[in-house]
């Protein structure tokens, strides 16, 4: 049984005061860490404060991207080494917004995934197709290629501990969710790709999230599907009330 993992991706939202208020309210809730893993991927600016505020609670803190080098002359960038030093545990890698607006390639994603493991960070590796690719029936091909490229050269043990987030680009922030069956089909294709590349034990352990307009009204059906082990959530992770509803559903699947 794979433990569900619900991760909020706050993107470029919230001030420090709003972020601290959110975590203060969230940690008052009774969420069973044994039943659901809870992650907040916050802007890098607040990571330090949020790591401190969530110590000893059910909440883990993640970053939204990282640079693959340990250190160096890379103005504006943040390394895995620096994230580890703060006590950050997760990092989103290859989000479609980074691929689209910041030219992140499959090769860069692969380097970042490897570097994340060098610094004991769990990567949440994002893959997904455009609407055009879906309409041309290329979804499974595109997504499988992205997964294999991201995991090239990664050890079986590390693949097992990776989180894959299937986020169809056309479903992000649009209110359009993939149907639970369609999302499950793609997540199954991802698991089969991992089976081919890394074997049965890895494929049955790796957790695969769905992301794209997940909300309290659709989470239950998504999580009821065999190959969907959690959600990567944008909009609905910004309010404590809606985020907690997602966690409550995940606790009971
Ligand atoms: O991009 C996403 C999470 O990484 C999804 O965002 P929304 O939940 O706002 O569609």
Put the structure in a nutshell:
The protein has 253 residues and is of the alpha/beta class. It contains twelve helices and eight strands. Belongs to the triosephosphate isomerase family.
Written overview of the protein:
This protein is α/β, with parallel strands linked by helices and 253 residues long. The chain has one domain (5-251): Aldolase class I (TIM Barrel). 43% of the residues lie in helices and 15% in strands. It has helices spanning 16-26, 47-54, 80-86, 96-101, 106-118, 131-135, 139-151, 156-160, 180-198, 200-205, 219-223, 240-251, and strands spanning 5-9, 37-41, 59-63, 90-93, 122-127, 163-166, 207-211, 230-233. An eight-stranded parallel β-barrel has the order 1-2-3-4-5-6-7-8, surrounded by five helices. α2 links the parallel β2 and β3 (59-63). The longest helix is centred in the C-terminal third of the chain and has 19 residues, at 180-198. The radius of gyration is 17 Å and the shape is globular. The termini are close together. It binds 1,3-dihydroxyacetonephosphate. 1,3-dihydroxyacetonephosphate binds next to β8.
User: How does CATH name the architecture?
Assistant: Alpha-Beta Barrel
> What fold name stands as the CATH topology?
TIM Barrel
Query: What shape does the CA trace take?
Result: globular
Give the number of domains. 1
Major sheet: size, sense and barrel closure?
8 strands, parallel, barrel
What's the CATH first level?
Alpha Beta
CATH superfamily: Aldolase class I
The H/E string reads EHEHEHEHHEHHHEHHEHEH
Question: Which cofactors or ions or other ligands sit in this model?
Answer: 1,3-dihydroxyacetonephosphate
Q: How much of the polypeptide forms β-strand, as a percent range? A: 15-25%
With strands numbered from the N-terminus, the spatial order across the biggest sheet is 1-2-3-4-5-6-7-8
- Share of residues in helices: 40-55%
Low-confidence stretches: none
How many β-strands, per DSSP? 8
CA distance, first residue to last residue: 11 Å
- Class per helix and strand makeup: alpha/beta
- Mean pLDDT, to the nearest integer, reads 97
Helix count, DSSP H or I runs of 4 or more residues: 12
- From the alpha-carbon coordinates, what is the Rg to the nearest angstrom? 17 Å
Function: Involved in the gluconeogenesis. Catalyzes stereospecifically the conversion of dihydroxyacetone phosphate (DHAP) to D-glyceraldehyde-3-phosphate (G3P).
Pfam families: TIM (PF00121)
Organism: Psychrobacillus insolitus
Protein name: Triosephosphate isomerase
């Amino acid at each position: 049984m794979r433990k569900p993992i619900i991760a909020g991706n706050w993107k470029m939202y919230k001030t420090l005061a709003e972020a601290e208020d959110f975590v203060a309210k969230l940690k008052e809730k009774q969420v069973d860490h044994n039943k659901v893993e809870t992650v907040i991927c916050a802007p890098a600016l607040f990571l330090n404060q949020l790591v401190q505020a969530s110590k000893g609670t059910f909440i883990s803190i993640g970053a939204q991207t990282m640079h693959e080098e340990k250190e160096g002359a890379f103005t504006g960038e943040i390394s895995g080494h620096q994230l580890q030093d703060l006590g950050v545990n997760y990092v989103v890698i290859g989000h479609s917004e980074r691929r689209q607006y910041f030219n992140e390639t499959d090769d860069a994603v692969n380097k970042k995934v490897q570097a994340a493991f060098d610094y004991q960070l769990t990567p949440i590796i994002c893959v997904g197709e455009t609407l055009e690719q879906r309409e041309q029936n290329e979804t499974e091909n595109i997504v499988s290629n992205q997964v294999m490229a991201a995991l090239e050269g990664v050890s079986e043990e590390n693949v097992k501990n990776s989180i894959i987030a299937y986020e169809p680009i056309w479903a992000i922030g649009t209110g359009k969710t993939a149907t639970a069956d369609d999302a499950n089909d793609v997540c199954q294709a991802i698991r089969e790709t991992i089976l081919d590349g890394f074997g049965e034990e890895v494929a049955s352990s790796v957790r695969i999230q769905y992301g794209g307009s997940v909300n309290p009204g659709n989470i239950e059906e998504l999580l009821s599907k065999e190959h969907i082990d959690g959600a990567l959530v944008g909009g609905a992770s910004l309010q404590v009330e809606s985020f907690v509803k997602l966690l409550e559903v995940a606790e009971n699947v």
